[in-house]
Amino acid sequence: MYQSQSGSAELANSTICHSCGSVTVLYPEKSTGKKTGMAFVVFGWLFAAISFLFLPIVFGILALVMGFMTYIDRSKVHGAVLMAFAAVGLIFGSLISIVVAGTMFI
Questions:
Q1: Alpha-carbon torsion angle 33, 36, 40, 45, nearest 10
Q2: Which end of the chain is more exposed for a tag (fewer CB within 10 A), N or C?
Q3: Cβ(43)–Cβ(78) under 8 Å?
Q4: Can you tell me the distance from the alpha carbon of 70 to that of 43, in angstroms, rounded to the nearest whole number?
């Protein structure tokens, strides 16, 4: 950390300048604007696609959870869209399963 009054370099966690005794202020680092949580997005869309054909209850709920985590960590719009597609996959996947299961025993 750089102390502006005396021009000396200070320790990273120091609150008092060792040269002049004045109080130093630690400024927070600027964020790079990079969004986190990319794994939530990838797994959410993967689970939403799988929920149409295979275990819609399990993968649909997992996709809803990943959509919620995307909503919290990455983007509210992207998370809401992912949750909507997860719900559609859950409903249509369940309906497809019921139709397929109903025709197997005829």
A1: 30
A2: C
A3: no
A4: 10
